[in-house]
Design a protein that fits this description.
The structure is a homodimer.
Chain A lengths: L4 H11 L8 E3 L6 E3 L5 E11 L11 H18 L3 E11 L5 H17 L4 E8 L4 E11 L14 E5 L4 H10 L19 H9 L5 E5 L3 H12 L1 E6 L11 H6 L5 E6 L8 E2 L2 E11 L12 E4 L5 E3 L12
Parallel strand pairs in A: 4-5, 9-13
Antiparallel strand pairs in A: 1-2, 3-6, 4-6, 7-10, 7-12, 8-10, 9-12, 11-12, 13-14
Helix pairs in contact in A: 2-3, 2-5
Chain lengths: 323, 323
């Protein structure tokens, strides 16, 4: 059974001891956290809600993996803007019959990842809830006016992605099929990496014209980027960096890879690896086709191995679906 | 039934159209919101998790009241630091069978209150959940180093509260007893006021040495302030500004009044009203009694009408109660 609210906050507070962090003036223990964002910088804010049986399952995901995955969702949003994370916050809804050990290991997974990016857990809230519910807030910073936006893509830009796609969906498929998977620390489904350093380099070296993180799946997230930029896209099926074990469908529609998708002006040189992460050109931004402009899902076409252009409907993982 | 995630976000985005707000560089529609916090200012962050049947009931609280109350919890934390709100964020977990109308009215209550403080709803997240779950994040700002902290109280300081206490608990008692209450716009249970302007004046005019908002109840929240300051307190029972309909027990232990409790150095003049809100002196900060220092709940004594000092145990509303 979980500790009473007050004791639980004290326990988390002791473990989240922030050490020396110049950005954090006041952490857990006051009405608000107080952060120092240097002048000339803008503040980034992202929130991500993770609900048991929607985003994870207790039977499939060890608590350390759940803590890691929750925080990764927020960090990945910061990465997609080219930002640097500053602090994280956690609002936690807990069922009464949950073991305190589950909470301890969840917090441990979250704090380990936070520590690897040198950000403190600076506050949050706790309440009872029928299912485990974790809302993660990540605050970041970025030089003023330099954020990578979804709206920066123009016709003629090349489309790139980091890493490989579909690996997380492949794991999910195997979990659904009843396989027992070991949640190894290197497994990108259980312990995905937020591409913070790659995002920062894309921004600093002015490589990317627009960016988004791949959380819902390539077909959905690229459609978002196209909507915000007012453009269409052509994806070259043969160029997709498909993860081992996954198929092209998973690479197109599978969620939770937390890779970055970015666009690059024609002529800008892109290294084969950025911050150690391989990047692949997968297609091209084209002018919005007038007739289709307002039909959701019609912005992307897939170029298959025979050179045919087929409409690609966004079919990634909508979290609102029944499971 | 609630709209699919994507449509729901678009719907909220249209209604949350931020207009001209200099603090908000990018709102809903990108991976993160981008905020401009002026140089020389610190950033305040607070998160508050509201869960159906823990913090509100669908049968008792109209959706506009729920939206208002959720945001008030965050605003009240900003008020307690003497800060100014900048933007709010909402992570929303929704049961599948919920009527879209409920969501619309909830958002309406939240946006009306946000509008009255001129802050935008700048982002958030949506997911399915078994109970309505709303995590509110409020970002604020404050001149660097000027935040009112819980840790600033010293022996000899006077203790003050704004407004009246116990009014919200009285409403809750009547709801539990089966009374049908009209959720009037002036009712402090259904539509509480965050004391933003009072908090700002307490800070600007250097009246308060420490502050906290009364969300869990006087006995609990004053104990928090005493812990953070390393002091004890004596509360004068006869001086409590008891709300109409409420009794002294409700004033001592009832939560959700969202008034401010603050301490003032002996000799500093305190106006009878601050930003239009009456304030009352209710007691005094005293040196921590050594023997009791680490016993939770022993920091406060109540001086009754016969001048006797009785220990006051924190007995406010712990949200972790059974649901």
């Amino acid at each position: 059974v979980v500790l009473p609210e007050r004791q639980l906050i004290e326990r988390i507070r002791r473990r989240a001891a922030p050490g020396t962090n110049r950005a954090l003036a006041r952490a857990i223990g006051d009405d608000c956290a107080v952060l120092n964002i240097p002048s000339g910088r803008q503040t980034l804010v992202t929130t991500d809600l993770c609900v048991e049986d929607v985003h994870f399952r207790r039977a499939w995901h060890p608590p350390r993996s759940v803590g890691h995955r929750c925080l990764t969702r927020g960090l990945s949003d910061i990465a997609a803007m080219g930002g640097e994370p500053v602090a994280c916050f956690l609002s936690l809804g807990l069922p009464e019959n949950l073991a305190q050990r589950w909470v301890d290991e969840f917090i441990d997974g979250l704090l380990r990842l936070a520590g690897s990016f040198r950000i403190p857990l600076a506050g949050g809230d706790i309440a009872g809830a029928p299912k485990i519910t974790a809302d993660i807030v990540v605050i970041g910073q970025i030089p003023a006016g330099r954020a990578l936006l979804r709206s920066g893509a123009r016709a003629g830009d090349r489309i790139y992605v980091t890493g490989t796609l579909g690996g997380s969906a492949d794991r999910l498929r195997r979990l659904y099929a009843g396989e027992k998977l070991r949640a190894g620390a290197a497994d990108r489904h259980f312990f995905p990496n937020a591409r913070i350093e790659t995002g920062r380099r894309l921004r600093e070296e002015q490589i990317a014209s627009a960016a988004i993180d791949l959380s819902d799946g390539l077909s959905v997230d690229l459609a978002h980027l196209c909507e915000e930029s007012g453009v269409d896209a052509i994806v070259n099926a043969g160029a997709l960096p498909v993860a081992r074990g996954a198929g092209p469908e998973m690479a197109l529609h599978g969620g939770e890879d937390y890779e970055l998708l970015f666009t690059v002006r024609n002529g800008v040189r892109v290294p084969a690896r950025i911050a150690g992460v391989p990047v692949s050109m997968i297609g091209e931004i084209v002018k919005a086709s007038k007739g289709l402009k307002n039909k959701a899902g019609s912005r992307i076409r897939l170029c298959d191995h025979r050179g045919r252009l087929l409409p690609l409907k966004p079919a990634g993982w909508e979290h609102f679906s029944k499971i």
